[in-house]
Amino acid sequence: MTRPQENRKLQIEMGFYSKHIFPRLVELSLGRGPVRDERRAALAPLHGHVLEVGFGTGLNLPCYPSQVTRLTTIDSEMMLPGRVADRIARTRAPVRQLKLDAGGRLPFEDESFDGVVTTFTLCSIGEVATALAEIRRVLKPAADYVFLEHGRSDDPRIARLQDRFNPITKLIGCGCNMNRPIDKLITAAGLQIAKLDRFVMPDSPRILGELYRGVAHRGGAGMEAVQE
Ligand SMILES: C[S@@+](CC[C@H](N)C(=O)[O-])C[C@H]1O[C@@H](n2cnc3c(N)ncnc32)[C@H](O)[C@@H]1O
């Protein structure tokens, strides 16, 4: 087989993996009951029109509080469309689902959402600083940016393991980085963290299960660089 043929075969295999296998792994690992409880706790402060960045397979849909009246969702992929359509049909609030890369300028006016949410998504957005700056831009002044993310451990021993094994999760997790300092990335985008819970996800290895759950607001400052 020639090199271009080999590359084409690899692309097809990776395409199959990211379209059919990875979304099912996401469902298995992030659709479990204990994770659903953490989702519910994270989303509780939200109300009004909410933007969800990195919608995935819609696992957050049953976890939104009744005060959320409208949802706009974006994701660079359209995963498991049949299953997602069923979940949307069962959701009380109207859902507008857009296929969009969060690493560029979002097609929304400044200050247009009552809340923005990311869950298990900041790990895999390539241009994460731009995405967070855009989240800040589209938040109304008193709105909540709610996050439930996994990331870098505060324990240097675990953080070293995360750095060592990051290339593996990046490959099998379709770009997932387990060693990102989530709180530092959020504050570097000019957002002010009002509440932050740090804990390890139940039944999860520490290198993957170091969670950051919290709420941030627009704050007054702009962006600064952060070392990932
Ligand atoms: C691990 S999944 C989590 C999905 C969902 N948020 C959840 O909690 O189940 C990460 C999601 O981020 C999405 N994603 C990654 N990079 C993105 C980008 N640049 N723009 C938009 N979505 C992105 C992926 O397509 C995937 O749906």
Short note summarizing the structure:
This protein has 228 residues and is α/β, with parallel strands linked by helices.
Architecture overview:
The chain is α/β, with parallel strands linked by helices. It has a single domain (32-227), classed as Rossmann fold (3-Layer(aba) Sandwich). Helices cover 38% and strands 24% of the residues. The chain has helices at 3-30, 33-43, 81-89, 128-138, 156-172, 182-188, 206-209; strands spanning 48-53, 68-75, 95-99, 113-119, 139-150, 192-200, 210-217. It has a 7-stranded mixed beta sheet, with helices on both faces. Residues 26, 30, 54, 56, 59-60, 74-77, 79, 101-103, 119-121, 124-126 line the site of S-adenosylmethionine (SAM).
